[in-house]
Amino acid sequence: MTVPFADAAARWLALDASTYAGTVAVLRGREVLVEREVAMRGEREERLMPAVVEALGTAGVAPNDLAGLVCGAGPGSFTSLRIAASIAKGIAHATGAPLFAAPSLALAVAAMQPALGAGRYLASIDALRGESYAAVVTLDAGDVVGYDYLGVVAADALDDLSRAHHARRLASGAEGAAPHARAVAAITRLLAESGPVDLDAWEPDYGRKAEAQVKWEAAHGRALPAVGM
């Protein structure tokens, strides 16, 4: 499937909340018109949806004008990912625009400033408990051309993994690689390969089960039944 970023007039909404920072971007083709960042933790009210509304208004783009949406698919923070996915799916249902899922670790590498050169990079997100979510992301001419998710790994094994995969390890967090919605234009190859999600079935890749789910399954001796978002 062709993802119409090549259409300079196509307007897109992208959002990611795989970490405790939620990001929003409105794009026209590959051009970022507006970008916003909000805290996803420690606030009295949900702030991502207001940021989406404000970003669209600032860009002068109505929801029905959107050619499509892109949502960070994780792995990462369970609650934040669900908030972003629910917003994206709600807008997609209401407008009929296709929704694409973007690997959040690919967004982290593509969002680096200054932009990284061609090569292989090991990106990670803190998974707590002394572990990290990790992936090898390959860049060429500023675009992501390869993505290999490594899963949940010990945080102290990241240097060894970078050597084993011949990938430069990137620092994570505020001083390093952090997912940002503005980077979606650099991952159109991945989006085209995967195609739009099934809105009724898709949910983010949380990377691991939520603690509440683990406790429920331990107490009941069976898997928690799946429910739609």
Report on the structure:
The chain is of the alpha/beta class and 229 residues long. It has a single domain (4-220), classed as ATPase, nucleotide binding domain (Nucleotidyltransferase, domain 5, 2-Layer Sandwich), CATH 3.30.420.40. It is 27% helix and 30% strand. The protein is built from six helices and nine strands. A hairpin with a 2-residue loop joins strand 7 and strand 8 (143-154).
Please render the helix and strand layout as text.
Layout: E1 11-16, E2 21-28, E3 31-39, H1 48-59, E4 66-72, H2 78-95, E5 99-102, H3 104-110, E6 119-128, E7 131-140, E8 143-154, H4 158-164, E9 168-169, H5 188-194, H6 211-220
The strand line-up of the biggest sheet is: 3-2-1-4-5
CATH superfamily: ATPase, nucleotide binding domain
Overall mean pLDDT stands at: 89
What portion of residues belong to β-strands?
25-35%
Shape: globular
Q: Give the H and E element order.
A: EEEHEHEHEEEHEHH
Q: Using DSSP, what is the number of strands?
A: 9
Number of helices: 6
Helix content class: 25-40%
Count of structural domains? 1
By CATH, the topology is Nucleotidyltransferase, domain 5
Judging by the overall fold, what is the CATH architecture? Answer: 2-Layer Sandwich
Q: Which residue ranges are poorly predicted, with pLDDT under 50 across at least 5 consecutive positions? A: none
Structural class: alpha/beta
